[in-house]
Design a protein that fits this description.
mainly alpha; single chain; 9 helices
Length: 185
């Protein structure tokens, strides 16, 4: 029974990711989740009390995986400057990932305080990853530099997500160049 519930919950989360990446937060409805998973609408409520609860669980499940991919990319290089580049490139490489598109859709929606706090905490975890590299580069305020660096990444993510006139590769190169010039300065 527990295994069945776990599988159903995973199917609901997968359906939520798809709905969010395909149609944004408006597409994430309990009837749509029920249709995608073959469950009765009332059954969806047995797993999640609200859309915000679905969002919170997606954050709990997907952000750590996403952060692990960024961390792994940073661990593959040695120099602090190379870590900064890997940090930027990996986050931008993940823009096309379904999990990321779902998180972006989530971030754009109106969420309750609990869901917003989980998103803030997850982003804070990303920022924390780069602080040591910036400290090694001699920044007097490495946490501040990390937050500003994440601002460059976030702006590039938004530009890619909007389907800007520039190719995503051009946006990535511009963000990497800006980030590296900024952290060197």
């Amino acid at each position: 029974m527990a295994e069945h519930r776990s599988m159903q919950r995973a199917a609901l989360l997968d359906a939520a990711r798809s709905l969010l990446s395909e149609g944004g937060t408006e597409a994430l409805t309990f009837p749509a989740l029920a249709e995608r998973t073959g469950l009765a609408r009332s059954s969806v409520y047995e797993y999640f009390r609200s859309r915000a609860a679905v969002v919170e669980e997606l954050c709990e499940v997907d952000f750590p995986l996403w952060a692990a991919e960024v961390s792994a990319a940073m661990e593959q290089v040695g120099a602090p400057e190379a870590k900064v580049e890997a940090y930027v490139r990996q986050q931008l490489a993940l823009v096309g990932d379904r999990r990321h598109r779902a998180v972006v859709a989530i971030s754009a929606s109106e969420l309750d305080a609990g869901a917003r706090e989980k998103i803030r905490a997850a982003h804070g975890g990303l920022v924390t990853m780069i602080v040591d590299a910036l400290r090694e580069m001699g920044h007097a305020e490495p946490r501040l530099a990390a937050m500003l660096l994440q601002g460059v990444v976030d702006a590039a993510v938004r530009r890619i997500e909007l389907g800007a006139a520039e190719d995503p590769g051009v946006i990535t190169e511009a963000a990497v160049a800006m980030a590296l010039r900024g952290v060197r300065g």
